[in-house]
Amino acid sequence: MDVRAQVEQLRRQLNEHNYNYYVLDAPTIPDYEYDRMLRQLEELEAAHPELITPDSPTQRVGGQALEAFQQVVHQVPLQSLQDVFSPEELEEFDRRVRESAEEVEYLVEPKVDGLSVALEYQDGVFVRGATRGDGQVGEDVTENLRTIKSIPMRIEGAPGRLIVRGEVYMPKKTFARLNEEREVQGKPLFANPRNAAAGSMRQLDPKVAAARGLNIVLFNILYWDGPSFGTDSGSLDWLKSLRFKVIDYVRTDRMDEVRELIAQIGDGRENYPFDIDGAVVKLDNLTERDALGETAKFPRWAAAYKYPPEQKESVVQDIVVQVGRTGVLTPKAVVAPVRLAGTTVTNATLHNQDYITEKDIRIGDTVVVQKAGEIIPEIVRVVLEKRPQGTAPYRMPETCPVCGAPVVRDEDGAHIRCTGAECPAQLLRNLTHFASRDAMDIEGLGPAVVEALVKAELVRTPADLYRLKEEQIAGLDRMGKKSARNLLAALEKSKGNDLSKLLYAFGIRQAGQKAAKLLAAHFGTLDKLAGATEEELTAIDDIGEITARNLTEWFAAPQSQHLIDQLKEVGVSMESAARPVGDLLAGLTFVLTGELTRYSRKEAGEKLEALGAKVSGSVSKKTSCVVAGEAAGSKLRKAQELGVPVLDEGQLLVLLGEEGGDQEGILSQLSPDVQEKEKV
Description:
The protein folds into 5 domains: 3-59, Helix hairpin bin (Helix Hairpins); 82-306, D-amino Acid Aminotransferase, Chain A, domain 1 (2-Layer Sandwich), CATH 3.30.470.30; 311-419, CATH 2.40.50.140; 455-579, 5' to 3' exonuclease, C-terminal subdomain (DNA polymerase, domain 1), CATH 1.10.150.20; 589-679, Rossmann fold (3-Layer(aba) Sandwich). 38% of the residues lie in helices and 19% in strands. The termini are far apart. By secondary structure, it is α+β, with helices and mostly antiparallel strands. The longest helix has 21 residues, at 3-23. Helix 1 runs antiparallel to helix 2 and helix 12 (427-435) crosses helix 13 (447-455).
């Protein structure tokens, strides 16, 4: 078999497996075998780039992040639906339809709570996808939509042009897993799957969107080159024959059955892989739809029945405090079991002290409970007339219930947080951060390995990492002798890291990478930094009062002192070799854009900072200079519009002193004094 035929065969096989797995939810081969076939295709295309096509399974994830999203004017407006909230409003909708339509048959389907998008195909090839936006104008998110494997890149038997509408969603299982990972990493949690899906679709880097595990379900044809369908159900069945993932529907001409179907969808909402926020009722006959028409806002032939949140009374039996992986203390109400939205609820989140105080929730109270967004149980209000005598207002503990360390209130006042550097509740997050690339950069010690080490009770503090033995690591799942040796080598290498990386690895609040570099360079050793006063710390440029207070409190804590002693004992360096190169670029703000050849943008930014410059991610009138590499986009255009000086990579290297040239002349163009004179 020649290479071209081999490539085509692999593409057909991979597309078939994608369809079985992501559309039919019926995988036919193990993940390992799929990954092996994809790797084989990648290798063949790398050796024969002339065979790469846009619809290849290897091209779902783009290689370069976008600078910004482009606007898209929808050829066919993406309308929203009229909401109805009661059986009476639903009956009124039906009455209006029957007054105008001769043939009334409805489709009833679950209303997916996600992000509405339009997909466009030309000659069977997916060419563009856009968000709904305001219905008239959306954003081009083609590259992110390519990462959704239930969207076919090519469809057989398609017309010249086809535009379909669907709802992008994050499966509930994926949402739970993603939030677990974000908690370990110390990142803010997503509020609900809808927000997670919308946020993922608006990522400028498609690699981020690809990692989010999004899916889609189609529910409408907006435009196509072909004979018109008689019914919506016929068009949906046709889309299904093209191997799209299509919404399930039930057809009926009886309103009593419509009401029954709506109730069934509501009662079974926990069984759907996606969140739903209602049920859609729409006229099936497309000719009758045209006759009914639409208002300025909604089509007259469809309605969205919205489910009210189910509420029930229960009793607060206790309030317990959990310590999350980021150290945040979260109170939880233990309530008498109550059935809500298809599940038995035994606890409800209380968020924080302010929430408890505002609602005056006390142990023993009768409360009204509901599920927020059909996921998280929450207390709506206290039934004060049922409050027993002798109850007292609840106050959060002043020490961590896990490790006993003092707790502090966040600067924004929302959360109370444990200060313990060795708190067991924060172990997974702390170790993951400690080993991360920008911290101690321990290759091979990712979240999965960290979790395995913790579960095996091999590590309780970061210092324990450096006491691991080869046989202990090799005995972990999916590890072996080679992996163990590599990890031990990476751990040994990390002992010699600069103090700045260790400081950042500690995870001291408000002490990020930039502050860690400044502090390490200024004090030189950890002992000197640990002994510094708040006044000494705030005397350093860019170190504010809050950061200084967090640093002094952290170093004064017994757990922190114990951790430092343990790290010293295993040989981790407590010194810095870094020193500021100078203040050549002090007072100047740089923005880097495009691709550089000598350094990555991050590396170039670090070199600029070493010379006293500030590096920003956005261009404004206060920007001193934009460094533009190849394929520079919107940031370069904005710099040109604002009259901000622009340097190419060659001029940057001269400015950094790494290439010969007129450094003084370049600098004169960027100095605030020169810029001010030119304005005058």
